[in-house]
Structures
1.
Amino acid sequence: MKKVNGGCHCQAVQYKAQIDEAKVILCHCEDCQTMSGAPYRGAVVVAGQDFDLSGTVKNYIKKAASGNDRIQAFCPECGTHMYATAVDGDPADKVYNVRLGTVQQRNELSPTIEIWCDSAQAWLPEVAGTKKIAKQP
Ligand SMILES: [Zn+2]
Ligand SMILES: [Zn+2]
């Protein structure tokens, strides 16, 4: 486990978190491509009890490929994507997929898992050392 902190571009939303360095995910799903505006999106996995968020996020609810509703939280001021999590459940018991680009220590984290590789951009070079999953883990 590694202690990290981070925030949005305008700093209205900030957090401290403990992350599992073995779970640094690159997601190639089409929703992540659209919502991030990038070829893929990075995320780290944080347990609710290890996620100390300050500031107010706005939630956009999207339907995941699984059929489940997922909260996509972003800063209402600058629009930075902060995390995704389940709609239901106690905040302390939920799992948060915190956006890698918001983590201040992101340069110390290497991706370990790539998901939705079936929809990855064809021109992307291969990332060494990741477990590659065709669709959902
Ligand atoms: Zn912001
Ligand atoms: Zn995705």
2.
Amino acid sequence: MRLTVLGRSPASPNPGEACAGYLVEGGGSRVLVDIGPGVVAELLRRHHPDELDAVVVSHMHADHMLDLVTLRYVYPWRARPRHERLRVVMPPGSADQLLDLARGVGNARHFEDSFRLSEHDGSSSMTFGGLDMRPIETVHFIPCWGFRMEADGRRLAYTADTAPCGGLDDLADGADLLLSEATLRTLDEDAQPPEQRGHLLPAEAGETATRAGAKRLLLTHLPIDDGGEWARRDAAAAFEGSVEVAEPNRSYEV
Ligand SMILES: [Zn+2]
């Protein structure tokens, strides 16, 4: 299984970098997980979207899904036959928001003519050829699901956005590679309101990897100052395995 980082920015982008977007290849399939602003331009460096088997979206925050709008423009401006439409799996309950977005860009059918839209059910595994992907709900400011992916006997866990929670531990359990958000520089940045958490400190990503017995930790969705070394150091203090900061346009064998 191979993971390619197309974007690692949090909602406020790092200069020259896309927001969340991860290409996962395994079991004979190629799936794009999350599609934030800037991701489609990065994807097109490598693949035409027709080479994708699916797009899967973790939650309806702009930094994880707004480039669905852009992706539609890659296709000719007419309805494609249904069997040629790209499979796009959205989080449960997102249909109205997606319709609002389509209307907001001027056409209620903006997505339907190119995408075969569906919603996952919040817990059941999805299969893409030999790639199995199980959504696990996390704790965030809106409903959000991370994904536990298995193919070719390897396990990749993607946290999406999350506060520390039981779902996060389930996601990460025994992962060969834990792709974890590490959005926060301080806990003060998480307050909205103060009693609700929605993101992780790098140290909490490290603690999760340790509890879960993960083999490697890859930090993402973080502001990059000194190349992210501060985040890597903080996570490595809590996890004995390999810790790296995700590099855009780099592929990682899982
Ligand atoms: Zn979010």
